[in-house]
Q: What sequence folds into this?
């Protein structure tokens, strides 16, 4: 199951590279949800997913959503 989370993460990064921002964010949020269910909130993969989500939001100028992730 965790391999599926990695696949979604990589697919999201490819989508972002092809300017499909909304699809990339949907995939990353889904991957984060699944990784949280599998590994728990304190797993390093969750931090990596949060970082990727934050970088995409920052790149497209969604500063309000970006700041809500900085807890």
A:
């Amino acid at each position: 199951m965790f391999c599926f989370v990695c696949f979604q993460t990589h697919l999201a990064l490819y989508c972002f590279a092809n300017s499909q921002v909304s699809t990339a964010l949907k995939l990353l949020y889904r991957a984060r949800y699944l990784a949280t269910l599998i590994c728990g909130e304190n797993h390093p993969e969750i931090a990596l997913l949060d970082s990727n989500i934050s970088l995409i939001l920052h790149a497209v100028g969604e500063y309000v959503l970006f700041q809500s992730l900085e807890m």
User: Anything to note?
Assistant: The radius of gyration is 12 Å. The chain has four helices and no strands. The longest helix spans residues 21-39.
